[in-house]
Task: inverse folding
């Protein structure tokens, strides 16, 4: 079975770690803390590097394989763990992604489904956009007969503050092609990903 590399997915322009470190130092001062104290002395650097890690996608090579056997049923990877940062409060949201597609002429290496989730999660996000970006990417890069994404996540901006709804989970979906237009395919995908619970 031959492979074909579609392209390498690279990270976007990097983070200015020095500027982020200075901003954290100023934030600590504005919160009434002393960043020169023994306990906080290295905090600005640590926070800057933590955000760099959380907001820098890892590059990966997208490889596909010919669908020689003509496989025409769903391919789904469930419970892909992810975490991202809410762009409204800079607090994490985390959960699981269920990603699948109905193959066309080519199939995708299964690990790449998890890589795509991680790629789009490593930036300031809202869950709705993250869900759509993953589905749009699959549709554009793989040209499947259908693609679907369901994300379930807990948002710390909602559980630690505001409503303080600890344990509440938000579910979003993005469906393309037959998974959107064909009622049976849609129902099967949602049933297999737990979207009909």
Result:
């Amino acid at each position: 079975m031959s492979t074909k590399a579609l392209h390498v997915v690279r990270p976007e322009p990097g983070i200015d770690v020095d500027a982020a470190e200075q901003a954290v130092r100023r934030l600590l001062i504005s919160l009434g803390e002393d960043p020169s104290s023994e306990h906080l002395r290295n905090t600005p650097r640590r926070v800057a590097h933590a955000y760099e890690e959380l907001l820098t996608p890892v590059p990966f090579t997208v490889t596909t394989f010919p669908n020689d056997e003509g496989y025409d049923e769903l391919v789904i990877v469930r419970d892909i763990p992810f975490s991202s940062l809410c762009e409204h409060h800079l607090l994490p949201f985390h959960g699981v992604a269920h990603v699948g597609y109905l193959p066309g002429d080519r199939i995708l290496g299964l690990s790449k489904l998890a890589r795509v989730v991680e790629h789009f999660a490593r930036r300031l996000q809202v869950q709705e956009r993250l869900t759509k970006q993953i589905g749009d990417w699959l549709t554009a890069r793989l040209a499947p007969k259908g693609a679907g994404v369901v994300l379930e996540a807990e948002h710390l901006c909602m559980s630690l503050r505001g409503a303080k709804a600890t344990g509440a989970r938000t579910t979003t979906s993005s469906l393309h092609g037959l998974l959107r237009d064909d009622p049976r395919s849609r129902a099967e995908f949602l049933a297999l990903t737990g979207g009909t619970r």
User: Anything to note?
Assistant: The first strand starts at residue 4 and ends at 9. The helical segments are 17-30, 43-54, 110-121, 127-142, 156-159, 178-181, 183-192. The chain has two domains: 4-10+64-192, 17-54. The radius of gyration is 20 Å.
